[in-house]
Amino acid sequence: MVQPKLEGKVAIITGAAAGLGEGIAQVYAKYGAKICMVDLSADVDRSADKIREMYPNADIVTVVANVADKDQMIAAAGTTVDAFGTIDIACCNAGVCQLAPFERMPDEMRDFHIDVNIKGVWNTCQAVVPHMLENGGGAIVIASSVTGDIVADAGEAAYAMTKAALVGLTKCLAVEYADRNIRVNCSQLGYARTPMVEKMAVESNPDDPESAINDIAVGVPMKRLAKPTEVGELFAFLGSDEASYITGAQVVIDGGSTLPETMSIGTN
Ligand SMILES: NC(=O)c1ccc[n+]([C@@H]2O[C@H](COP(=O)([O-])OP(=O)(O)OC[C@H]3O[C@@H](n4cnc5c(N)ncnc54)[C@H](O)[C@@H]3O)[C@@H](O)[C@H]2O)c1
């Protein structure tokens, strides 16, 4: 019998109460990982219950914590180790996105993105790395984005800046820990339908947010947004031993959205 790819692995997943984090947790449970679901929102318990209903053997603990607070993340890593003995994989997924014209974007909005999107991943990595070193290795998967490093839309200055920064963090940590068996990779997602994207659609077209979502799909060669579990499959692969020689990689998962050079050539 083929062993599920994450059997015996312990993973901590941030931002797991909704959207992609919930999708990642669902796929990790499917593949047999023991998981600690971390979120700012107490809804994380409801998400964990949903996953337990789908996978009754799933081993899950939940922690309400703010990734922007290093002490809370050190405590969350401690809870994971207390529950399951170690940490093999960290999915640094929690992130925020608010839109505003650059010339009117308040410094507080900029700093909010830096605190959650950059320092939150930094804190999560610093909280888990000592356990991974003690354990002889591990894998970190960071949720960057195509936004910032490859493409950007107006209003995304703070978000794009912070997501591009995560590519630099990924590469440095990958080099720094390569000889100690910790792999570090990042995902670069186009669009998935999550509460974050539904909120962006409302901000972009308050009268008809659904048309804003449909318009995203029109620009994607595959003509649809990603499902959170499709992103979960990538996180599962990068976290698993199947990716044992992959480190420092930026993996685009976007249905081809960053590929077209024009919207007009070769269409007839
Ligand atoms: N949805 C997309 O299309 C898309 C595209 C590219 C990258 N991403 C990235 O993927 C990640 C998840 O996105 P999503 O669409 O699922 O977002 P979402 O807003 O739908 O869900 C994010 C979850 O993270 C939690 N969270 C927010 N701030 C937190 C904090 N400070 N501490 C702990 N938890 C916190 C929220 O409570 C929520 O449960 C983000 O890093 C985002 O930038 C998303």
TrEMBL record:
GO molecular function: oxidoreductase activity, acting on the CH-OH group of donors, NAD or NADP as acceptor
Keywords: Oxidoreductase
Highest taxon above the source species: Bacteria
Any single Pfam family the record assigns to this protein: adh_short_C2
InterPro entries membership: NAD(P)-bd_dom_sf, Sc_DH/Rdtase_CS, SDR_fam
SUPFAM superfamilies, per the entry: NAD(P)-binding Rossmann-fold domains
Record-linked NCBIfam families: PRK08226.1
Family: Belongs to the short-chain dehydrogenases/reductases (SDR) family.
Stated name of the protein: 3-oxoacyl-[acyl-carrier protein] reductase
